Structure formats: structure tokens, C-alpha cells
Amino acid sequence: xxxxxxxxxxxxxxxxxxxxxxxxxxxxxxxxxxxxxxxxxxxxxxxxxxxxxxxxxxxxxxxxxxxxxxxxxxxxxxxxxxxxxxxxxxxxxxxxxxxxxxxxxxxxxxxxxxxxxxxxxxxxxxxxxxxxxxxx
Amino acid sequence: xxxxxxxxxxxxxxxxxxxxxxxxxxxxxxxxxxxxxxxxxxxxxxxxxxxxxxxxxxxxxxxxxxxxxxxxxxxxxxxxxxxxxxxxxxxxxxxxxxxxxxxxxxxxxxxxxxxxxxxxxxxxxxxxxxxxxxxx
Amino acid sequence: xxxxxxxxxxxxxxxxxxxxxxxxxxxxxxxxxxxxxxxxxxxxxxxxxxxxxxxxxxxxxxxxxxxxxxxxxxxxxxxxxxxxxxxxxxxxxxxxxxxxxxxxxxxxxxxxxxxxxxxxxxxxxxxxxxxxxxxx
Amino acid sequence: xxxxxxxxxxxxxxxxxxxxxxxxxxxxxxxxxxxxxxxxxxxxxxxxxxxxxxxxxxxxxxxxxxxxxxxxxxxxxxxxxxxxxxxxxxxxxxxxxxxxxxxxxxxxxxxxxxxxxxxxxxxxxxxxxxxxxxxx
Lengths: 136, 136, 136, 136
Prior knowledge:
homotetramer, Thiol Ester Dehydrase, Chain A
């Protein structure tokens, strides 16, 4: 299992007139979480694109429990539960505030797309190899 | 059944470096869709807040089929499938591009919250009354 | 002189916890304004990019007079005051709310960049030709 | 003189189809910069609002020199050049990338507004007192 924790602060421009972090901003927070999770593998998401793989999102789910407020420090926990075998990659998320309260949980599924053909393709072997040590 | 259609164009600032409308922007598009759906009831979402009801999101799901590109004209179809009986309100979504291709479908569930107590409350009677004619 | 007017509504996700449309969102509103201004010339901003010209921003100025609120209908007035002779293009802006109150004014200057060389270049002749009738 | 440096990474959702960090996102980066500058004074921007002072923006200026790209590490340098005497507060900005290249410079002016009267007011004495040691 790969577990990655990243912290960020809610920006003023991310709040809405309820005083909450806008519900749509978590798509961006989850993206920050998976970028940092991938960095643990020894390459960056940028490298993935430069090696010819795009990773568009095919599914997003978020269950909201509690709102975050301006200047809250959010911990995003990103988990990869099993190594990839097909064309899809799933990331599991939890966001907590600085009091340790669960704000929301969710998941994002990405599809591997070959940049040259613009068609779905299997997760590359260098990606699954980098992940393998986390599933011993 | 209440069905509402709204159109908007993908802004340049909403694209990402893949050239796609960023996956997180649909949370905002869905919000535009439900605001226009509510306007059909004879009041605005703004009125709802002014009458003391907040409607934070408790659940978001999106299944992405195809990307939208800069300057595409998106039609957001928002559907309310049944009148509300509890504390939650569910909106069903589909986004299509100008060629009629389905880009994504999804749902958003809102919770009714009483602004004074900051606690969940039943969907107000003036709201369900306004919806009733759509479910005859 | 080319003058273009576009309307849009302030989205919920664009407000902040003061209840104002976030000050940074006007960069996006101004972009919407200039896209519609360019459309009057018989081609789209998208066409401009497809013809090999990028138009990154070199300067942004906004003077804020009054805030906009959620669901306000904003009229963006975009003006091109003189035809282009060099590598830069300047757009002048005013935003008004539905009561006709001036919310802010400002300007954006773009630089013409040749996509193949990635270097600044003169505004293409087909662009200045399309603008010429507005400066007779 | 108060000088504050903050680092952040360009998020994927902040890029546009040119592959640049969208020009409008710097309004948010500048906001992050001034929040961290204020934190050096011994209170937070959140505290300022809780003490009854709102600080809406009255002026924004940005001169763009070079673009930032996805995953670039940006250093935002925020400077307050003199203590405040009236109703306005000005912050001077520079953004650099990880190679030390200047991406843009600019300024933001805020107006002090009394939350109860919703009218401009003088910068409070506890604010100028906290700043005083930086201008000895």
C-alpha cells in the first residue's frame, strides 16, 4: 500500500460566501495529493507526461462530512491500495483539518492514454515496477 | 420531473495543459446548472439563502466520458427526478458539447441546513410546494 | 473603435467569504470579454491559436470601485481604442452590475508570439485588416 | 521594510492550454504572499477579519515577464515599503521560479473597511504598531 500525506492551507480565493472552502476546490486538492503520491515513486507527474502518457480523470467521487474554512491547514491522505494491472489507476482520498476532523473522503480514477495515438493504453511497466515495492 | 438546460462556453482559464477543460471545473458547471434549475421554481438560489436555508454539498459524483475543449459550448442538463421528503436534495447531471456528444454525467446531493442553528433541517414546505407541479 | 459588450452571472464558486466576487476572478471575466470582442472580427481566439499565434498577457491593471455579489449580472465592456502596429494589443475594460454601477475598470495588454519560434512577432496583417473597418 | 518570502508549486489545474500558469492565478498567489507577510506581524489575516476589519482590494497591477509551468516552484516575495497612515495598504510583489528567473512583478492595494459600518476606515493602530519595528 502506498500512503502519502500532503498539507496545504485554504486560500481566501477558495472560500465561498458560506465561508466554506468551495466544494469544487477539492478536485484540485486531490490532484495535489496524487502528484505528491507519485513523486514518492522516483518520478514526477510531469515526467509521466514527458514519457508520453497522459492521465485524464475518468471518475471522481467525494463525500463531504464537514466544511473547511479559510486558512485551515488541510492534510490530504492519498492511498493506492493495489498495483495496477489494466488501463486505470485509482487513488483513495481523505482530507482532515488541523483538529484531525475528517472533512471528506473520495476517490479519483485516471485512465492511461498514449499521447501519440490519443488512445487508452495499459499502465506502463516502469510505473508498475516503481509501485511494486509498496505491495510486498 | 424537472429538467433544466443551460449553456455556457469553456473559458481559456478553465483549460489545462492537456488542452482539456480541467476536470474540477465541472463542479462549477454543475452548480450553474442547479442554480438555473432552481430559478424555474419561481425563486433563486440567492432567495433560498436569504430565507435562512444553506445548501452545502454532501456528495459529488462525476463519470467523465470525453473531454471538453476551449470555447466549446456546453449544454448542462440538470434533472430533479423526485420531490424531496427529507433533509437532502439530489440533482442529476449530463454535459454535452455542441456536437451532442455526452462529455460526462454525475450527481450532486445537497443538505438543507438552517442558517440560525447551523443544523440540518427538512427541505422547507415552500420548496417542495414549488416543485410539486413537476411531479404530477 | 471596437466596443464589445458581454454579460455573465457571478457563480457561487466565484464568491469569497466577504460575499464578494473574488478580486482575481476579473482576470477571467476580462478574458471572456476579449474573446467576444475578437469574435466580432470574423474569427475566434481559437482560430488565432490555430493560425500559429499565441497571445500571452504582458500586463494587467484593475481598479476596483465596488464589489459584485453572487448571481449579479455583470456587463463587461471591452474596447480596442486604436489599431495595432507593433507586437502588442491592448484591451480596455469596464464591468458594470445590473444596476448600471461601475464595478471596476482596467486594461490587459497581450503580446503576439509566434508558436513555432516561441518569439514575439508583429500582429499579423489578417488581424489588423479585420480591425481596420472599426477605425475609419 | 517588511519582506516576506513564500513558496508554492503550480498546480495542474492552474495551467492553461498554452502550458502556462494562467495569468489570473497570480491574484491568488499574491494573496498567499500577503497572508504570509501579515502572519509575521503576530496575527493572521483571519484575526484581522475577526477584529472587525475587512480588506477588499482596490487596485491590482501585474507585469508579466516570463511564464511559469506546471510543477514549477514559485517564490513570492511580498514587500511593505512604508508604514500605513491612511485607509490604504500597499503590497509590492515579485514572483521567481526555481531557476531564480523573475516571472512577474506587481502590486496590490487594499482598503480598510469597518465591518459594522461597511465604510472605509483608517488602518487600526494595532496594525501600524505591529508594523512599526520593521521601519526603524
